[in-house]
Design a protein that fits this description.
By secondary structure, the protein is of the alpha/beta class. The protein has a single domain (13-127), classed as 2,3-Dihydroxybiphenyl 1,2-Dioxygenase, domain 1. Helices cover 16% and strands 36% of the residues. β3 and β4 (59-63) form a beta hairpin. The longest helix is centred in the first third of the chain and has 11 residues, at 21-31. It is globular. The N and C termini lie far apart (37 Å).
Length: 129
């Protein structure tokens, strides 16, 4: 098998569906503490919105779903924290739809929990050691 270079250097952005971009911006900025770095019009009646963790280099684009695409998806997006219990408690106190408990499966799997955004998209928070 011959290897070829793809010249891909990283992941800069992931896109998740948002049926109400203003509501999504409020959730990701106010509830999660992200910052909105891009909010520009494009096309005839669309907006391109990007939010990032404050010190992050990989962002989330909050885009209107395409026709017939599902609006609530298992995103596979994994966010990291250095204190899973504090993060879980803080998000719960802010009214975020988090799992009832932190999942602890034992070594080598780190503690984690899932949460859902206002569109029902699920993301995971994992404690990094």
């Amino acid at each position: 098998m011959t290897k070829t270079a793809t010249h891909i250097g990283g992941i800069s952005l992931v896109i998740i569906p948002s049926t109400d971009q203003d509501r999504s911006i409020e959730f990701y900025v106010e509830s999660l503490g992200f910052e909105k770095r891009t909010d520009i019009p494009f096309g005839d009646h669309y907006r391109w919105v990007e939010v990032y963790p404050t010190s992050g280099t990989t962002g989330i684009a909050l885009a209107p779903p395409r026709p017939d695409d599902p609006t609530a998806v298992q995103t596979g997006i994994t966010l990291t924290t250095d204190d899973i219990d504090a993060s879980h408690a803080e998000l719960r106190s802010r009214g975020v739809d988090v799992d009832a408990e932190v999942s602890r499966m034992g070594e080598p799997v780190p503690p984690m929990f899932w949460f859902r955004d206002p569109d029902g998209n699920s993301l995971i928070v994992v404690e990094q050691s």
